Amino acid sequence: MKKLFLFLAAASLTLTSMADEGMWLLPYLQKMNAKQLKERGCKLSPEEIYSMNHTSLKDAVVVFGPGCTGEIVSPDGLLFTNHHCGYGSIQALSSVEHDYLKNGFWAMSREEELPAPGLKVRFVRQIMDVTPDLIGNIPSTAGQQEYERMVRENGAALSEKLRGEHPGLEVQIKSFFGGNLYFAFLIEVFTDVRLVAAPPTSIGKFGGETDNWMWPRHTGDFSIFRVYAGPDNKPADYAPENRPYKAEKYLKISLDGYGEGDFGMIMGFPGTTQRYMTSYEIDRLLEVENPQRISIRGERQDILKEDMAASDKVRIQYASKYAVSSNYWKNSIGKSRGIRKLRVKERKQEQEAEFCAWAAAQTLPEERFAEALDLIRDGVNENAPYFASEQYLREAVSRAVEILTPARYAGMLREKKLTPEAFREQLAEFYKDYNLSTDRKVARRMLQLVQQNCKELPDVFKEVIDKEFGGDTGAYVDYLYDNSVFTDEAKALAAVEGGEDLTTDPAAVFGRSVDKKLHELVDAQRAGNTKIREGQRLYIAGLMRMQPEKAWAPDANFTIRLTYGRVLPYDPADGIRYNYYTTLKGVMEKEDKNNPTEFTVPERLKEIYAAGDYGRYANAGGELPVAFLVDCDITGGNSGSPVMNARGELIGLAFDGNWEAMSGDVAFEPQLQRTIAVDIRYVLLVIDKFGGAGWLLDELDIR
Questions:
Q1: SS3 helix, strand, coil % of the chain, rounded to 5?
Q2: What is the pLDDT of residues 113-130, one digit of tens each?
Q3: The dihedral sign for the CA sequence 161, 165, 168, 170
Q4: Which pTM was predicted?
Q5: 648 and 623 in contact (C-beta within 8 Å)?
Q6: Cα–Cα distance, 301 to 59 (Å, whole number)
Q7: 84 is annotated as an active-site residue
Q8: Which of 89, 485, 496, 521 is deepest in the core (most CB within 10 A)?
Q9: Phi, psi of 122 (to 5 degrees)
Q10: 12, 20, 56, 84: which one is catalytic?
């Protein structure tokens, strides 16, 4: 194990990157990327981008909420991110009377900024390579179970030590390269975050589901928040007397724009990629995982969409739920299409054949590289029947049938995992965005689908649905919703506070049966998953050893990374060239009165366009840029990430990838892969001339 660790450390520290592919670890920029950054035109040194001991660009880039990126843009904690990243908070603060989704929100003073309950912003304060602490004492003969046990024990001890040395900071230890490398991240978490501004949906989500993942794009995908702190500038729970966070580092903003071929870089928190995925796992993705997700989510979304169109209240309640579901639904469609069209599986098979030949000829049996692919294949095959059913139940029941959520809260209260106060708070939060009729319709369709397509059914299907309802899932759903107290907040609270035994409530019975089956399915896959993880660890380490001259970047795992490239057009098909930017003219051209939900243009924006009233936000040709392309390497989690020029100045906010390269999470496509970003000049114009919130620009450093 020590020999492998030393090799990986040397490989990580001595290579020079040769392509735009790569979500690069910040501590390795000096050794791995300095030369190419300079050659590409970057004016900043690696030390100015990331410094272990001084303030650097890294300190202005934050984790926003549970899964996005944001950037601090003023000394008073002002934060830019995407509209779709702030969407959940905007929705939570909205009502029929104050419809911030439809109409937007513009605070006209700091006193009007709205607290966003539950929203958190995380600053990475320190990054350290802890690989020796995690795997340095693991014998090279260790099997995967022993390996993982020792990593857990070593990680727990190190986490405790770091928490003691850094009180008040969150400690995260993350695995890289399949468990061959480890970093610790010390994080400061701010919990008083307030909504400052958001454009209406007709700007922030212009194009909707139709344009999602597509280019050309014309979406003003931004929202604005502010981080607040206590009197010592440290994190503090919400209090009216809290003050704006005083930022040591914030991004300056450039109005200079960009030209074709200009340098661009993105720093953020990419969520998940599977660049080391094997052909066996691709088969599972294409044949099981994506088809099930696409089918189930499509059915549920059709029901939600119909009810949302019929009621403003339901539209607001389900807006965020629908957006979260549909985003990954369309992503799955595009990913499957891209993998097939771009022959990703065949390319993986070629790499695997080369690896097998190398392992047989140039490694020792005790190193076990020759076993790697067999372990992955066997694990995938052993898990196949259980994997499909587990995913089906999670998609069609756990994530779809909402009445199970308050039933679970009641169970947690009974088991003392929730306090009575926390139970009441979670119940109120749930029912605020719950519509009984919608959930009932979803449940009827989902249980029908589960009965038809899931091979490993929960006991409730045999013991209750078959025996008592003759296999009629619709009749069972009617019984469940007619007799459960969890259809209504007041009934649920009264039953709990009245001491009723809710273990026999139909929703509780159904939920326990589903959970029991899911636990069984997870247990059935433990051995197979252990083989897969061991195979992946050996395969990734072997690839790096097989090609020591190649610059290897680890898969995304929601840790801070840098990616860089150029502002470029692309050719999606023969005879077609997509320009590298779009303008407000395209917004006007896309308006569609037959699809007002997705393609309505606000009247004020039309007035600005008609007058050509762009001021300093126009480009050299007098146009107002809306979005642009850069060939950087991003994925989910990068949403809201700053797109910066060669001087590290903000020129846009990354918000999407392009349809033609949706397979990019599995295999980077240098000729096709593009990041779509909203131009900062469009953001500022909307703030200033559309929203009338020009006071915000006074605290920005605009160049």
A1: 50, 15, 35
A2: 999 999 999 999 999 999
A3: negative
A4: 0.94
A5: no
A6: 39
A7: yes
A8: 89
A9: -120, 130
A10: 84
